[in-house]
Write a structure and sequence with these properties.
39% helix, alpha/beta, 7-stranded mixed sheet, Spore Coat Polysaccharide Biosynthesis Protein SpsA, Chain A, globular, 18% strand
């Protein structure tokens, strides 16, 4: 079965703006790059087909060095970028599509494999909620167009509702490496204090 991982990214300059109160611009960009590089290394370990969809062409060297491929986003917004990447995956005959955020500092290859393995076949969706239980940090679906993308506020319940409405089975995957992301100063402090235990 062919699997592709898509990692959406806004670009280093636009990333982690909610950390502006505790990190200067250079520190935010360095953190965003470190998190993205780690996420891509893990994705590459779990799957040999990883794509970063981003409006920032400047990320290309980082993406290629991590074993992934960069696709320049044409439209505006996260879901529009993911839809563009999805259409490319469909054209390439990909059977199962995974979306992972690039700010999961404790993500491991086994987390990605578990998300893929959890997808109900032959048609289904697996959702990895964030630590608060409201967002979606990982999403896997078979086929790649099983449901629409609804990333944003309340995306976990939105993705579940899309699957229910389409009559497609879905499961939730709860793993620490998928649940913990670095979005806020409190997240950053927790990660710096607890590391992999965050």
């Amino acid at each position: 079965m062919t699997v592709r991982i898509i990692v959406p990214h806004r670009g280093l300059a636009a990333a982690k703006t909610r950390l502006a109160s505790v990190l200067d611009d250079a520190e935010r960009e360095a953190l965003a790059q470190r998190l993205l590089e780690r996420a891509l290394r893990v994705a590459h370990e779990a799957c040999d087909d990883s794509v970063v969809i981003t409006p920032s062409e400047a990320l290309e060297s980082v993406v290629i060095a991590a074993g992934a491929r960069l696709v320049v986003q044409r439209g505006m917004g996260l879901n529009a970028g993911l839809e563009q990447a999805r259409q490319e995956a469909l054209a390439d005959g990909i059977a199962l599509l995974v979306v992972l955020h690039g700010d999961l500092p404790n993500l491991k290859a086994d987390d990605v494999r578990a998300l893929v393995a959890a997808v109900p076949g032959p048609k289904g969706v697996a959702i990895a909620p964030d630590r608060g239980g409201t967002g979606t940090n990982g999403l896997a679906m078979q086929p790649p167009d099983a449901i629409g993308f609804a990333f944003g506020v309340g995306s976990r319940s939105a993705h579940a509702a899309l699957a229910e409405h389409a009559g497609i089975p879905f499961v939730e995957v709860h793993r620490p490496g998928l649940a913990f992301d670095v979005d806020t100063p409190a997240d950053l402090a927790r990660w710096l204090e607890l590391g992999d235990a965050a």
